Each structure stands twice: as structure tokens, then as C-alpha cells.
Amino acid sequence: MSSEPILELVGVSTDIGQYHILRGVDLNVPANTVTMLLGRNGAGKTTTLRSIMGHWRCHEGRIFFDGVDITKMPTAEIARAGIGYVPEHMGIFSDLTVEENMRLAAIQGPIDSARLDWIFGVFPALKTFWRSAAGTLSGGQKQMLSIARAMIEERKLYLIDEPTKGLAPAIVTTMARALNDLKRQGAAILLVEQNFAVAQALGDYSDVMDDGRIVWSGAMSRLSENAELQQKLMGLSLAGS
Amino acid sequence: MIRALLSDDLPRSRVLTLVLLGIVLCLALAPFLFPGVRTVDTAARICIFIVLVASYDLLIGFTGIVSFAHTMFFGFGAYGVAFGLIHLDRSFWAMGLGAAGGALTAACVAIVIGLFSLRVRAIFFAMITLAVASAVAVLFSQLSSITGGEDGLTFKLPRVLGPAFKFGTETLDGRLFGVRLNGKLLAYYLVFFSAVLLFLGLLRLVNSPFGRVLKAIRENEFRAEAIGYPVIQYRVAASCISAITAACAGALYAIWLRYVGPETTLSMEIMINVLLMVVIGGMGTLYGAIVGAAVFVLAQNYLRNLMGAAATLMQDIPILPQFLSADRWLLWLGVLFVLSVYFFPSGVVGRLRRS
Amino acid sequence: MTAAPEPTPTIVRPTSSEQIAPYTPLALVVLLICVGYLAIGIPSSWLTLTLSGLAMGMMYFIMATGLTLVFGLMDVINFGHGAFISLGAFVGVTVLLELGVFSESPTLWLNIAAVLLSIAAAMAVCSIAGWGFERLVVRPVYGSHLNQILVTMGGLIIAEQLIIVFWGPEEIYFTRPEMLKGSADLFGATIEKFRLLVVSLGLGMFAMMRWILRQTKIGLIVRAGVEDREMVMALGYRLRLVFIGVFIAGSALAGFGGAIWGMYQEVITAHMGNQAMVLVFIVVIIGGLGSVEGCFLGALMVGLMQNYVGFLAPKFALLSNIGLMVAILIWRPMGMIPVVKAK
């Protein structure tokens, strides 16, 4: 890879109970790029993100973020080092209002209004429902909120788990635009995605997982050009485009 | 034969076998080994608490749910016997009917509480049983026209079990190895053999397929559910059986004391004692009940004396005698209890089995 | 400007029943007061009972709220919570007796100052005890409900015995400060002055807690943490510290509740905390474990029920609250204001 990696996983293995979910993941996320993490269901993509955040601790291997070993850091410290995380289940606090969700995500102090205006520009629905309980939002709006929450302050790296899952095509487009904006601001993104069209449009690099390992790694363009490779790596279901 | 009696669940440790054998032999021969009102009384209490603690172990050790209503069921059995003997007549028939009535009530209440709280979350069970048990204890001490209130009820046992009943006067001159052959002796053996029977029954139960499912649920509730076991039904059934056994223990207690009262059968204090016994003895083994009950009842009766002596020794040091005063024995058992949850969660029995 | 059409937010108006739903618990409290009026029939007795029910409810709220928050935040159920209630009562009453000059003076504000000082002392001691309890007793057993129940119960036994070691095994009788004895006349109903003080203290406490939970960042963290612990940590907050803070605050509140409970009854014993726990558990179950508002409304209902039934059929006061709990659980199995858990 050309640029210096912002995130580096070296031989990360994670067990959940008695199951070996990750079996030595080696992964590089270069700075200022979008890296797609692809693979079948159950390949270990979500577990990889959770292991980076320290929700599940890996028992082997090291994780470096921005040159610092974060393998054993508490989750809160990892986040404060500059990682924004959007989990698979979105992690919305449904009892809190949209505003409170956003205020909570702004860990450095009050919300920066310029940045908020930009977010409102991308997701106008959030402005409409600013004072409503987040639990009353629709699925798509919740997903927007969960991304917006990660965007509220500048982070060096975003870990985003399937932001387009189950969303209407129009919202998928909005979402893609938001991620593009983030990338233009100079952040790195590690994105788990099942929608290959979205992956193709956004990704600079791609890493394909299977059975707890990275089985292919390279430029996104190489993968999108090669239908045979797609089929081999990810099976029929994904090679739609 | 022994293997069959113990349902193939042997103590599996030489030391443990010796300890258990020692306790059981002492209890079996208590009236002959330690003739004396207080020692025989202690032995009978140990027998009864072994059953009560074992039935509690069925719940806490084999299903992983904590109930604070166990003494309530214990009380139901005790009051059942009292009602039977007072309101019907002074016969074994009335005594048995009373005990059965108590057990039936216990079973019904256990089912209702179980269906209510286990359906939502096991943690509710602990809180709800605590609340219900306290309410029942208050109710029993207030409905004095029926239950005798705080004073409780005294009653007469069938004549055969009373101290006035003598037997073997012609052949043995009324004594065996110097021990008077009377109804009190018969009452002790009624308690002892009933306790043995109930304990062996519980042992059989936990080693049956039913018991194995309970253990599976305790280990992994979700997996048991996924395999297709109706987890809630199993838990409710376990709490029901445990309640019935507790009621039987209560009936024995009433028979032994010839008295029931809220303090002796329903109070939170007894509940806490049972908790201490099951944890110190070892959860999930049933044998733990034997060790736990024996250790606890002996401590309750004799540790005080020891501590009282220690307190007198340290009279001159400020505060310290307060900690060692005879009435503070519960403090030290509490410390022992917390330490055993941390360091040997499987209790004395688990410890012995491992080594 | 944009290529994709902006997804128009579809605003689904909640049906009227959905709009009312959040207020039903409050309506239930009002309903209970009305039913109480019908059942009692004598307006002056009803007013007296309602006010003392509310006072009692406030005390239960203060005692229970720490328990419910600690559970919501860390899934820890503290059966030793009652120990802090007892401890608060003993410390509070000891300080009150030490402040004899204040409490015997016929000036109302000096009396109130004495009460407030005792409460402050009780809260201070209980915070320290709570910190120690969390470190020594609770911390090693996170994640296992069975061990939590056992260990905190053990902690309760030890704490009660320690109280006996320091204060002796006998019940302590005492009298309240001069001006807070006796009762006042209000619309023909006799109302104990101390109850009025308790009601205002309880309302103040509830308002303050609501303000902290709604308006401050720490409150946001606590509310969010009740819902989804993991996500709060992933946002960059060290929940461990917040939790210790909540545990300490909860213990201090139990001490607060214990102190006024003791002054209310004018007699204290080492076991009073654990006796109060029976109703505290009913309160948190009715309210919904983890919900402060639910705890408040649940406490009011329990307090009112206790007083109404205590007047009509004294023997069934506690049983009626069990009945109340059963009824609420049939209606809403997770309590009046169920807390949504992310997982």
C-alpha cells in the first residue's frame, strides 16, 4: 500500500465463548481512504470492528492506531484517540432525543454549530426531528442519526458497520454522499458493506474476509473489474453488478 | 445397594466420604451417642435443615435462581401440621393430612410465583419472592385468631410420639444402652428417617433426566431453549418440587418442636441461615447440604460459647471484644459466606471433590 | 443541487392511545387517590392519609432510586442496599441527638437546620460506605446475578452486624426536634408537620434528579448507559467511573432516605433497612427496573396504598401492595415504565 496506514491489525484472533471467530486477521487501513471490508455473513467483519473497539478483546495479535498500540486500551480511550464507531445495530439511544444523542456524541464540548449545519445539510430529517425521541424515528432516520453522531466531531478514522442495510435506495444515496463528504475532509473509513454497488462507488481499497481471515486484499478497482474473482471470494449473492 | 440408593452419585472423594459418613452415623445414633436433651435437639435440627437446604440447593444450585420464599414454604408445612393436629384430632392421619395440605399450598404458591416472575427475568424471582415471603410472614403474625399471631401455636402430637409414651418396658426394662425408650426417641427417628428418605429422593431427582436438563439450563439457558426444552416450565417445576420438599421439612420441624410460630418457621433470619448453609456447604452438589447444615447448626449452638470465651480474654482491648461477643457470631459467618462466594463458589464439598 | 431526491420524511402521527400511553402511570396514581377517596368517604381522613401516603412514597422513592439506577446502568442488583438505609438512619439520628441545642430550640429554622445537617452527615457516611461496598463486595461479581445476590446479601449481614457492634443491639428511641413534633391543621385534616417537611424534601430531590438526568451531560451519560452501555463507551466515556459515581450517589440517597425514615418513625434498629427493602423492591419492580420516573410514581402508589389499606384493613396493608405489584406485572411485565435495553 502506498500511504502510511492509520489502522493496522497484525494477526488478530478473537474468540467468543468457545468459538474462534477471528483467526489471525491482518488488515491495513491507509490514511485518507475508504477501505471496504467485504465478505459473506459470518465471515467475521463485525467481530473485526468490535475487536478494534475493544468490545471483544482479541487474545492474540496487536492493533495499532495512528502508530499507538491500542490492543489493551479501554474502549473509551480507543474512541477518544480518534475513532468514530457506527455499530451494526446503530447504537441509537432511543430514550434520548435526537439532540441529546448528538450532544452526547460531542465528547470534546458543546456541539460545533458550523459542523452541525453541514450535517443538517446532509441529513435534513435530523433537523426536523431535532427534539423528538430517537426511538420514534424510522429505520433510515435512525441510521442517519447514528452516522451523524459519528460525524459530529472530526475523527481520524470511522468504523462503519453496514450503514445501508435494509434502507430504501434514495436513503442509500444520501448515505453514500455523507460518507464521500467525510472522506473529502481527510478522514479514513473502514466500511463493512454488503451492497456491492455502494462498495464499488465508495471504496478505494477492499479487503475480503472469509472464515475469520482476510483472504484477498487490494485496490477496489481490481476487484470490481474482475467478476470471476468476486464470485470466487464472495459467492453468487454479492456479485450482482 | 448403596450405589443404587445414592442414584449413582457418590461423594467421589475419600475425605468427603469420611466426613459424610461421620455426620450421618452421628445423626443416626445421636440419641445413643450423645444422650442429652440439647444434643439430640441439635441433631434433629441438623436433620431437618439438611432437607431444607438440599431442597433449596435444588433451586439455587441446579437451576441458578435465587428464591427468598423458601422459608415461607417451610412455614406452610409447619403450620399445616399444626392446623391438622389442632383442628382435626391427635392422630397420625391428621398429622399427615396437615403436612400434605401444607405441601399442596406450597406447590400452588410456588407455581403462581414462578409463572409470574420467571417469565420475565430470573432476577425478578429473587425480589418478588422476598416481597411475597415478607408479606406472608407479616400476615401470619397478624391473623392471630387463626395462626396464634406472634406467639404461634403449640399442639399435641399423637400419643406415640410424646415423651409419656414408653415401650419395651417388659423385655428391655424400658432402656436400650441406657437410653430411655419413649415417644421422644420415636419422634427423633421419625424425623431422621423422613429426612433420609427426602434427601435420597432429591438425589434421585437431580440425577434423573429431569435433573440433567436443569443443569443444562443452568449452564446455558439460551442453548437449552434452542434445543427445545421449555426452560420456564422446567424452572417452575423445579421451584415447585423444591417448595414441596421444603414444606415436608417444615412439617418435620413442627413435629419435632410441637410448636409453630412466625419467628421459628417464617422469618427472614432462617432464610438467611439457609443461604449461608447452602453456600458454605457447596451449591449444586446436594451433599453440600449435609456439610453446610451440620457446620452451621453446630456453629450456631457452639461457636457462641467459643467466641464468648475469646471476648472475655480480650476484655481490656477497646472495641475488639465487641466484635468477638457471643452475639456477633453471625458477623463472622457473614464474612465466611462472602469469602466462600469469591474463593470457593463450590463450597466445602466442591473443594473436597476437586482435591 | 443534489442528484438524488431528498427522502421526504413520512411523519406518522401517533394514534391517540399511543399519545396517552406515557401518561397512564401518572393517571394511575391519580386514579388510586380517587379510589381512596371513594373507599374512605371521610374527606378529612382521606386528606390526612393521602398526605402521609405521599410522604411515605417520597421516602420510598429516595431509598429506591439508587437501586434502580445501579441496576439499569450496570445490571447489578444490590440486595445489600438496605444496609445503607440502616446506616443512614443511625448516623442521622446520632448527629441529630448530638445537635441537641439545635433541635430543642423552639425556632423552626434551627430545627430544620438540625434535620438537614443530620441528613448531610448520613449522606456523607453512606457515600464513603458505598464506595467501599462497591470496591470490596460488588466489583468482583459483575456479570453474574446469582453471585451478586449472594454476595450483596452477605454484605448486608456483615453491615447489619457492624452497626450492632458500633451502636449496640437495642432499638434506639428518640424524639424529633421541637417544632417538627405534632401536627398542623389543613382544611380540617390533621397533618403531621414532619410529613410536610418530608414531602417537600422528596419533591425537591425528585426535581433535582430529573434536572441532573435531563439537563446535564452526566445525566445524559447515565440515561444512555442504562439503555446501551457498550455504545456509551464506544463514544468515549469511561462508564466505570460514572457507575461508581452512581453507586455512591445511590448509597448516599439510601442514607438520606434512611435518616428521614428513622426520624419519621422515632425508633431505629439495625434491621430497619432490610425491612424497608421489601417495599423498595416492590417499588422498583412496579416502576420498571432502571427508570427513575417509574420509581417515583411506583413509590407514590405504594405509599398511598399502604396508608389507605392500612386505614381500612390494617392487616392487609403489605399484602395489598403485593396485589398492586401483581396487577401491574400482568398489565406490563417489565413495570410501568419499562426500560428499553439495546440487547
Automatic annotation (TrEMBL), chain A:
GO BP term, example: L-amino acid transport
InterPro entries tied to this protein: AAA+_ATPase (IPR003593), ABC_transporter-like_ATP-bd (IPR003439), ABC_transporter-like_CS (IPR017871), BCAA_Transport_ATP-bd_LivF (IPR052156), P-loop_NTPase (IPR027417)
One of the record's GO molecular function terms: ATP hydrolysis activity
Keywords: Amino-acid transport, ATP-binding, Nucleotide-binding, Transport
Ranges for domain ABC transporter: 7-236
Protein family membership: Belongs to the ABC transporter superfamily.
Name of the protein in question: ATP-binding cassette domain-containing protein
Organism: Tritonibacter litoralis
Top-level taxonomy: Bacteria, Pseudomonadati, Pseudomonadota, Alphaproteobacteria, Rhodobacterales
TrEMBL record, chain B:
Transmembrane stretches, start-end: 15-34, 46-72, 92-116, 123-143, 186-206, 236-258, 270-299, 306-324, 330-350
UniProt-recorded Gene Ontology molecular function terms: branched-chain amino acid transmembrane transporter activity
Entries under InterPro entries matching the protein: ABC_transp_permease (IPR001851), LivM-like (IPR043428)
Protein's UniProt keywords contain Cell membrane: yes
GO CC annotations, alphabetized: plasma membrane
Localization of this protein: Cell membrane
Tagged with keyword Phosphoprotein: no
Keyword set, alphabetical order: Cell membrane, Membrane, Transmembrane, Transmembrane helix
Highest rank taxon of the organism: Bacteria
Membrane topology field: Multi-pass membrane protein
Main location: membrane
Name by which UniProt lists this protein: Branched-chain amino acid ABC transporter permease
Source organism of this protein record: Tritonibacter litoralis
Lineage: Bacteria, Pseudomonadati, Pseudomonadota, Alphaproteobacteria, Rhodobacterales
TrEMBL record, chain C:
InterPro entries referenced in this protein's UniProt entry, alphabetically: ABC_transp_permease (IPR001851), BCAA_transport_permease (IPR052157)
Signal peptide (from-to): none
GO process terms (BP): amino acid transport
Record Pfam families: BPD_transp_2 (PF02653)
GO molecular function, a single term: transmembrane transporter activity
Membrane-spanning residues: 20-40, 46-71, 83-102, 108-133, 145-167, 194-213, 241-264, 276-304, 316-334
One GO CC term, this protein: plasma membrane
Location within or outside the cell: Cell membrane
Domain of life of the source: Bacteria
Keywords attached to this entry: Amino-acid transport, Cell membrane, Membrane, Transmembrane, Transmembrane helix, Transport
Membrane topology, record value: Multi-pass membrane protein
Family of the protein in this entry: Belongs to the binding-protein-dependent transport system permease family. LivHM subfamily.
Protein name per its UniProtKB record: Branched-chain amino acid ABC transporter permease
Naturally occurring in which organism (per UniProt): Tritonibacter litoralis
